[in-house]
Structures are given as structure tokens and as C-alpha cells.
Design a protein that fits this description.
The chain is mainly α and 168 residues long. It has 7 helices and 3 strands; from the N terminus they run H-H-H-H-E-H-H-E-E-H. It folds into 2 domains: 86 residues, no CATH class; 71 residues, Orthogonal Bundle (Arc Repressor Mutant, subunit A). A 3-stranded antiparallel beta sheet has the order 1-3-2. A hairpin with a 2-residue loop joins strand 2 and strand 3. Helix 1 runs antiparallel to helix 3 and helix 3 crosses helix 7.
Amino acid sequence: MLRNMPFNQRLMLSVSILGGFILLVIAMLLSYIWSAGGEGEPPFLELLSRFHFELMIAVSFLGIGVGAAMYFLMQEQAQVKAREAIGNAQLLLSFLNSDERAVVELLLKSEGHTTQAQVSRLDDMTRLRAHRVVLQLVDKKIIRVEKLGKTNQLWLAKSIYEALSEGK
């Protein structure tokens, strides 16, 4: 039933559950403060102060239940976003030519960074071709280049790396 509920309704339900839990915790704190102060507490908090210890245990377990409910209600949206990111990353790869794709795959295998010299060691890749492919990927903002002496360090864009590494 809840899985078929639109996201906005699940979000409102989550906020309502969380709000109710917070109100319960505040009421328990107020009952404890009034009972510890020795003053007469309002009649609606009398029951809470009489069974304060038992209610603290119950609220602890209720907190775990509220956390589980929040996860259950929101986890589908997180999974949808992850699937979209993977799909977008795969779409990006489909628009790259074979040399660019090979460089991106090398960067993925080497945890998002490598050197231009490593790129030139790929099959059918010369130093000139590696240089041109790197420039094309920099222009497309897929990688960034950091000069380290005479060596070019290549870094895959963080968002692209995260999306493509999730898909593998």
C-alpha cells in the first residue's frame, strides 16, 4: 500500500510521524522537568510523570521504529536517484568515441586518477593521440588536468566517477 503511494504523500507521512515523535519526546521532557521541580504539573502530563521510566523505554523503542519507518518511506526515492545517476553516466559514455571511452575506463580502473603517460600506454594509443583525447575530455569537462612537474595528472570529474563507479 505504501509503495504505491506518491512520493509527496510519503514525504508528508514521514514528516507527520517524525513530528508526532518529537512532540512525544518534548511532552516527556516537560513531564520530567515538572515532576523533578516539585511543582504541580498540568493534568494532561500527570499520566506521563507517573509512568515516566516505562515511557522512556517505550519511546526509545518507538524511536527505533520511527527511524525504520523513515528509511522505509524514503529509501525508494534514494534508489531511484541512484538508478538515474547510473543511467546518465552510461548515457555519457555512449556519446564518447572509443578513445575517450578507453581513457574514462582507465580512470575508473585506477580509482579516478592516472597520468597522461599511462593513457599513452593504452592499446593503439600514441602520445599525440593521448594528448588530443585528453584535451577533448577536458573541453567536455569530463576530466581535469593537474600539472605535476613534467607529468600531467588526470582526474575524472567527481560526479562522473561516483556515478560510473556505482554502476560497476
